[in-house]
Specification:
It is built from 7 helices and 5 strands; from the N terminus they run E-H-E-H-E-H-E-H-E-H-H-H. By secondary structure, it is α/β, with parallel strands linked by helices.
Length: 176
């Protein structure tokens, strides 16, 4: 029996990497259903946020399919940032199905949801030094191998949509 009915996990997924899949599978081991929030959904085509919410949605789906996670166990919801942290949790609650636990290692997210009276559970990292989206993007920029850090389906998708070129072009123009 699962500890909770429905959980929430939020990430930017810029791009989806094996650490994300490890986190999702961990959360799914604790709940019947998982709401996967695509954070900062309004941002794309920036060096820190190169992919659109729709592209990230597709990456998550492909990666979870590749890892034999059935689609009836999760839903994916794009979540926009707010300019005021104190209302972000309320906005997430308004845009998602009801959940009763939040899985996160982010101190701000954890604090906001604890203030909103949610149970918050940390997620064990999978080799955090290797599996992080900034590292994947940096490897792409530097022309270093990166494909082994993401699920095969995600690597193929990034290549198919011109994501490698997009990230390299954004590095030439991004001033953030």
């Amino acid at each position: 029996m699962k500890k909770w009915d429905v959980g929430l996990i939020v990430g930017r997924f810029q791009p989806v990497h094996k650490g994300h899949i490890h986190a999702v599978k961990y959360a799914l081991s604790k709940v019947e259903e998982l709401v996967i929030g695509i954070g900062s959904a309004q941002y794309s085509h920036e060096l820190k946020n190169p992919f659109t919410a729709g592209e990230r949605f597709r990456m998550i789906r492909l990666a979870l399919d590749e890892n034999h996670v059935t689609r009836d166990r999760y839903c994916i919801i794009p979540l926009h940032d707010t300019r005021t942290h104190s209302i972000w949790a309320a906005q997430v609650i308004a845009y998602t199905p009801k959940f009763n636990v939040v899985f996160t290692n982010d101190p701000l997210t954890a604090g906001l949801f604890r203030e909103a009276n949610f149970q918050v559970e940390p997620v064990p990292f999978l080799s955090r030094g290797n599996y992080n989206a900034t590292g994947v993007r940096n490897r792409i920029l530097e022309g270093k191998p990166w494909e082994n850090l993401v699920p095969k389906s995600v690597a193929a998708m990034i290549k198919n949509i011109g994501g490698v070129e997009r990230i390299r072009n954004l590095a030439k123009t991004d001033y953030v």
